[in-house]
Amino acid sequence: MKESSSQARSTWSSRWAFILVTIGSSVGLGNIWKFPYMIGLQGGSAFVLVYLLCILLIAWPLFMAEILIGRRGGGNPVSAMATTLAECGASRFWRVLGWVGILSALVILSFYGVVAGWVVDYLCKAIVGVRVETALEAKRAFDTLLGNPLQLAFWHTVFMVLTVGVVARGVVSGIELANKLMMPGLFLILVGLVFWGAVAGDMPAALHFLFDVHFEAITPDVFLAAVGHAFFTLSLGMGAVMAYGSYLDKKTSIAGTSIWVVACDTLVGLLAGLAIFSLTFRYGLEPSEGPGLILQTLPLAFSNMPGGRVFGVLFFLLVTFAAWTSAISLLEPFVAWLIESFGLRRATAAWGTGVAVWLLGIGVCLSFNAWSEYTLFGNNLFDVLDIATSRFSMPLSGVAIAVYVGWVMGKRIVAEEMRLPHGIFSVWFAVVRTLVPVAIALVFLHAITG
Ligand code: PFF
After folding, report:
1. In terms of CB atoms within 10 Å, which of 60, 345, 441, 444 comes out highest?
2. Is 266's C-beta closer than 6 angstroms to any atom of ligand 1?
């Protein structure tokens, strides 16, 4: 199927294909790298509890709103905004929302690709059987990687080529196919790892750590971290969900499909946490290690446990698949915009965008070593890009999407697109109009003032 503005747009081949690719977008480094280390840093179960509430009450309703705009607009995020605002007679100002989404997605991809590159490096080390015997050795290995710009740039390049290669092939024969191949593999590996964690690790300790409720540990910071992460993990505010929603056929229920995505994304995060902490506790390692949790702490466990090499390879393969399918969804919105606005060939649009993102990523690679003294308020380029997107553009887009769907598009259009029973629709609509924007705005204000 040719995918240009002059032709009918592609649609996913089935409702399940949409569910799978959207799970592919949402399940990523956020679930397997970030979620477990945030649980570790934010006091375990308190964070899990608040996070689950944030997913249910804030992120999921917003996720549906974002799919809704994409499908109603039937185009890339910029044109979807233009079409829907023309339909409801709103100000052209709202188009900004589409722009912020597709550009922020590229910014995220530039550093996401670098972190994914670390994972591919660890995968290769696991395959050739590199072992670390002490915590110091594990830390040194990670620091050596960060200190070597060529090695970082090499793996970043490999990962970007993999990502662009898929997007260049098209919506159905590229994105959908890649997800159909990788996502079942991801689930199988994850289940295998949890099983192994139960056998070789200390699962009761992990269960206590994740699920014993400690209300006293819930602080505003925990709440802040949980909302931010709920956004990141469901790929909200970046145009990715909107773009994927635009390839969804009109008959499919948005609520019915989104429930699968939200449930699977949450489950994957929790299962990954269970497997990781079972090993962390079994080998007496530190759960609050921070970003180094899966790159420094786990390799130590792999080196010490029976079958650790196989476990290590499977684990890093899992993370690579997860990161790859998410990166694809970060690239697609801008590529779709280029194709639909300028009639570019998909391959040209994908490789051209890929090169621009890759270049920014090279800057990120250098920010850990040669350029580490160039900082803004003490933050290197990597941190600046992360903060700009996760603390600013994501929450601001989130509030704007909720306000747009809740107050601007008009109830008739929204109801027509959602096709929910009246009572359920009213609850969802009320949440999108009130709870979602207010909660995100409060969190945002706390983030910038605190
Ligand atoms: N949801 C992905 C993760 O959890 O790793 C990250 C992500 C993908 C964020 C796509 C935003 C996005 F548009």
Report:
1. 60
2. no
